[in-house]
UniProtKB/TrEMBL annotation:
Domain ABC transmembrane type-1: 112-327
InterPro entries: MetI-like, MetI-like_sf
Membrane topology (UniProt): Multi-pass membrane protein
Subcellular location per the Swiss-Prot or TrEMBL entry: Cell membrane
Signal peptide: none
Keyword GTP-binding belongs to the record: no
SUPFAM superfamilies: MetI-like (SSF161098)
Assigned keywords, A-Z: Cell membrane, Membrane, Transmembrane, Transmembrane helix, Transport
The family this protein is said to belong to: Belongs to the binding-protein-dependent transport system permease family.
PANTHER family cross-referenced by the UniProt entry: INNER MEMBRANE ABC TRANSPORTER, INNER MEMBRANE ABC TRANSPORTER PERMEASE PROTEIN YEJB
Protein name in the entry: ABC transporter permease
Pfam families, A to Z: BPD_transp_1
């Protein structure tokens, strides 16, 4: 087991290096970098003063450009900057934002509450509804209930989250019909003065529409996966044997089928749990004016805030690789029939 874990950890290193190297190389050729943006701000500022207190009347001279390059570290050769970046990342020093004047770590931590809120609610609501629904569909396979629920979840899956978000805003966010829910932030301005019960209600009131927009499209995958896993187990020989021995259908379903059918879902928990925080949140956060990790990543790419782009990419890639390793280990821990030698093949 430990040799397998060590091999997987060692394989993470070239993967991380590949992702960072490719991104760093692309950044060197992308127009409109931080120096160009600062020069543009200086030219636009004119006599009123540009970025960093510099003043110019007709343009930006070479000395000012050199100062900007030194400020952002672009006065050094690319290879030297690349090696310096890898050294900092090895110490988990993600650097400092060019434009926000904060460390990348502090920016990520400040945005986490929004992403965690949306991610946790999306994850738990999806599984709490989809797993029981998938079991019910498997037991009633081919019935009117099965057909109707399949149609409903597939319609939800076909509707993009941001389209549903716009619809919810129009209907319940004061767009055209009713203003039942707030449009921005996770809490109200007077949240600190509210009682404990008032804070809980206020938080749930703010998070309702973003969570609904995020969760509806997730039902179909987990529901159909649960249904198909149960159907595969129900048709196996051991189920027929258990029924032939006179066991009740309820006992066969919950004692024998349930444990084996949920293996694919259980081992997928780590990936689904982490993925709920970092995927599909950009449009939802933008629609509902929630300042989370998705919006931070998007704004950093637009503004060419390279320390934030590379720092968040490094962190998310590392989390993704670790989550994949945990998922593979869960296969062995949940099902002892699987050996690490099989995972290595």
């Amino acid at each position: 087991m430990w040799s397998y874990i060590l091999k997987r950890i060692l394989l993470m290193i070239p993967t991380l290096l590949g992702v960072l190297t490719l991104t760093f190389a692309v950044i060197q050729f992308v127009p409109g970098g931080p120096v160009e943006q600062a020069v543009h701000d200086l030219r636009r500022g004119g006599e009123q003063g540009g970025a960093f207190g510099m003043r110019t009347h007709t343009g930006v001279d070479a000395q000012q450009v050199a100062q900007l390059k030194a400020l952002y570290g672009f006065d050094k050769p690319p290879l030297e900057r690349y090696v310096s970046m890898l050294g900092k990342f090895a110490r988990f020093d993600l650097g400092e934002s060019y434009f926000r004047h904060q460390s990348v770590w502090s920016l990520i931590v400040s945005k986490l509450p929004v992403s965690i809120s949306i991610g946790l609610w999306t994850f738990f609501i999806t599984y709490l509804i989809s797993v029981p629904l998938g079991i019910a569909k498997a037991v009633r396979n081919g019935s009117k209930f099965d057909v109707a629920t399949s149609l409903i979840v597939l319609i939800g899956f076909a509707i993009p989250g941001f389209v549903l978000g716009v619809l919810l805003l129009v209907l319940f966010g004061g767009g055209t019909f009713w203003q039942l829910f707030p449009l921005r932030n996770l809490t109200s301005d007077n949240w600190a003065t509210l009682s404990l019960g008032g804070k809980i209600v206020d938080y749930l009131w703010h998070i309702t529409l973003p969570v609904v927009a995020s969760v509806v499209g997730s039902f179909a995958v987990i529901t159909m996966l649960t249904k198909n896993a149960f159907l595969d187990e129900i048709r196996k020989q051991y189920v027929l044997t258990a029924r032939a021995k006179g066991l009740s259908e309820r006992r066969v379903l919950w004692k024998h089928v349930f444990r084996n059918a949920l293996l694919p879902l259980i081992v997928g928990f780590p990936g689904a749990f982490i993925g709920a925080f970092f995927t599909g949140s950009l449009l939802i956060e933008t629609l509902f004016s929630l300042d989370g990790l998705g919006l931070l990543s998007y704004e950093s790419v637009v503004r060419r805030d390279y320390p934030v782009v590379l720092g968040t990419l490094y962190l998310f890639t590392l989390i993704g690789l670790a989550t994949k390793l945990i998922s593979d280990l869960c296969y062995v821990w949940v099902d002892p029939r699987i050996q690490f030698e099989q995972l290595e093949r």
